[in-house]
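User: Last request for today: this protein with magnesium ion, please.
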Amino acid sequence: MNFIPEIERFLKARHFKSVSPLAALIDMDGTLYDSMGNHADAWLRMVTELGIEATRDEFFMYEGRTGASTINIIFRRAYGRDATPEEIEELYHRKTVYFAEMPPVKPMPGAKEMLDTLIRTGIKRVLVTGSGQSSLINRLDTDFPGAFSSVLRVTSRSVTHGKPHPEPFIRAMQLAGAKPSQCIAIENAPLGVKSASDAGVFTIAVTTGPIPRKEMENTGAAVIFPSMEECASQLHILLYQLLTTSQS
Ligand code: MG
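Assistant: Here's the final one, the structure of the complex with magnesium ion:
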C-alpha cells in the first residue's frame, strides 16, 4: 500500500522534516487485547443497575478515559452533578468486579505479529494504557513475551491527566528518550488517537470495534487500518515509507 500521501500530509501539518521511528507507543485495551466488548458490557451492567439509561456503544466512545471520568459523564447526564469520590470508588470497583466475571479476554488477532515487526526492526515498544486494572497488565509478559520492558510502561498510575490529554504519550516519549518525530503511536479509540496526536505523534488508528473511521479522522489519526491484522501486514511497508519520505 502507498502511505506517502498520508505521511506528507502529516509532515506538512506538523512542520516536521521527517519521521524516523525509534519508539512505538502502544495502547492496550482494544489494541493488544480484544477486551473492549467486555469493558462495555461491564459498564453497561453497572450503569443499568443504577437505573440510568445508556447504550453499549457509548462506552466504546469513552474508551481511554479514566473510570472516574466515565462515571462523571454518566452522573452529569442523569443527575446534573459529578459523582463524589466515595461514589466513584464504589462504582468503579463494581465495574471492575463485573469485568473480572466476564469470559477471559483474548489477545487481539494480529497484535503479536504487529509487535514482532517492531521487535525485528529494533523499534522500542512503550505501553501507554489508561487502565490500572492489573488483570490484563500482568498478562502482557505471557501473551507477548519480550515485547514490553517493565520500565517502558505508562499506566493510569503514572499520570495526572489521562487520555484524551496528551500527558500519557508525553510521558511515554520521556521513558523512551524519543521526540515526537521519532515515534509512532498505535491506538484503537478516538480519545487515545487525540491524546497521541496532540502530543505530536504520527498516530496509527486501528478500528477494532464499532467506532466509525470518521471519528479517527476527526481526532487526528495519520493512517487508519480496518483491523489489527491489516495493520500488522502493512506495518513494515509503512515504516519503510516513513523512513524514506521527507519534506523539504
Ligand atoms: Mg484502547
